[in-house]
Amino acid sequence: MNDLDSVLAVLDQPDALRALLRERPQLVTADDDDGRTPLHHAASRALPSAVEALIEHGAVVGTIDYEGHTPLHVAVAPELMRHTGAEQHPPADARRATVRVLLAHGISNPYRENERRDALELARPSADAELVRILEASLPPPMADSDFAADVSSEAAFYARLGHILPDTWPGKSLEVHPTDFETFLPTSVPLYAPGAMPPLTDWTRSRNWHPLRGAPLTEPAGGTVYFDGGISEADFHTLLQILRIPAFPHAFGVFVADAEHPLDQRFLAQMRILRQSALAAYGITDVLENQPIDIPSLMWAFTRRERLRPRSIRGTFGGDGDWAKERLCFGVMVENEAAFRIWSRAWLITK
Question: Do 271 and 317 have their domain in common?
Fold first, then answer.
């Protein structure tokens, strides 16, 4: 019996669980092949007494698994716990009690507000009005123009509420290179070129010198591309975008999205590309863009939330063997140039 199995065997016996953790306190951080700790398992099975015992012995309430899910997420939506054999439909009263325990041990932490908002979106389709009310009560009142009021419980609802996504065929005319070609990148320093003198679109893999010092770009803040973990807080995310100088205005921009057919080869799971009017001019597109219902930083943040909540498994998508190397959700954001921006989901490989 491995360390995690030792804990799982007594999860439904609070006294035995406490005795085990007193004897072997390191077991509180044991995890499975998906990075799920005993607290994830207790939360998904709606065992509030076990959740209390684990927290008493040092379990981190906000710990995330390799797909970016916390114990609160799986308490609300136990179906996120794939490959575990855990009960998928615990009693509603037990689930609510478990959620209350988790909230009580982190509700004052502003960096966990986005986690509670995600949990609320997961709870909405459950038809458990009381659970929704508990989660709503844990959050401050939303601002009138807050994008977080948007429903992200389905792909269609997410894109319908958070941006006008342009189809692959837009603008309906033949182009040498199309904005939906995610393998090409706009050149940097667009404002330094006179109209009509813009250099051609280039293949990024052939145009970059990858030496970290000699190949550093001259124009993009922070080197243009930053990767970050799937558990990033809302505050840290917006600070990152400010460092990268990704603007909130204007609201007129085009949005293109793509899901990777072969993530390992393409190096992303899903990708969003945002082009302002001046960037589209590089493609010969002069169509006037309509205003979006959301600004660029808020749209990017909503994309990260949506990717964390998507009902999929990332196991094996980036070559992990499930033992020595395992996938963990992360993101990349890029200043393609000061009128073009990208954000994508992918996975780290976490090794032993």
Answer: yes
Whichever domain contains 62, its CATH number is 1.25.40.20
Please answer whether residues 59 and 43 qualify as being in contact, where contact means their C-beta atoms are separated by less than 8 angstroms: no
Taking only the tens place, the pLDDT of each residue in 140-188 is: 765 433 444 445 445 555 555 566 788 888 888 888 788 888 888 776 6
Domain termination site, one of 141, 172, 188: 141
Closest Cα to residue 350, out of 327, 329, 331, 316?
327
SS3 of residue 44 by DSSP: helix
In the numeric block, which tokens belong to residue 203? Answer: 């293949």
**Co-location of 55 and 182 in the same domain:** no
81 shares a domain with 181:
no
Count up the domains in the chain and report the number: 2
> What is the residue type of 322?
G
Answer yes or no: do 168 and 137 share one domain.
Answer: no
Q: pTM here?
A: 0.68
Check if the beta carbon of residue 198 is closer than 8 Å to that of residue 187: yes
* Cβ atoms of residues 217 and 188 within 8 Å: yes
Please report the pLDDT score of residue 133 as a whole number: 93
> Domain range for residue 83?
3-141
Q: Which residues of 75-99 are buried (b: 16+ CB within 10 A; e: fewer)?
A: bbbbebbeebebeeebeeeebbbbb
> Which stretches in the chain have pLDDT values below 70?
1, 82-88, 107-112, 141-163, 187-223, 352
For residue 62, the one-letter residue type is G
One domain for residues 254 and 130? no
Of the candidates 333, 347, 261, 325, the one whose C-alpha atom is nearest the C-alpha of residue 67 is 347
Alpha carbon distance 154, 311 (integer Å): 10
Give residue 148's pLDDT: 41
Residue the block writes with tokens 């979006």: 292
Show the beta-strand stretches assigned E in 208-285: 225-229, 253-259, 270-276
Residue type, position 72, single letter = L
Same structural domain, 133 and 176: no
- Amino acid making up residue 135: L
Q: Does some domain include residue 151? A: no
Q: Based on the domain organization, do 172 and 319 belong to the same domain?
A: yes
The rounded distance, in Å, linking the Cα atoms of 326 and 349 is 5
Assess whether 165 and 311 both reside in one domain.
Answer: yes
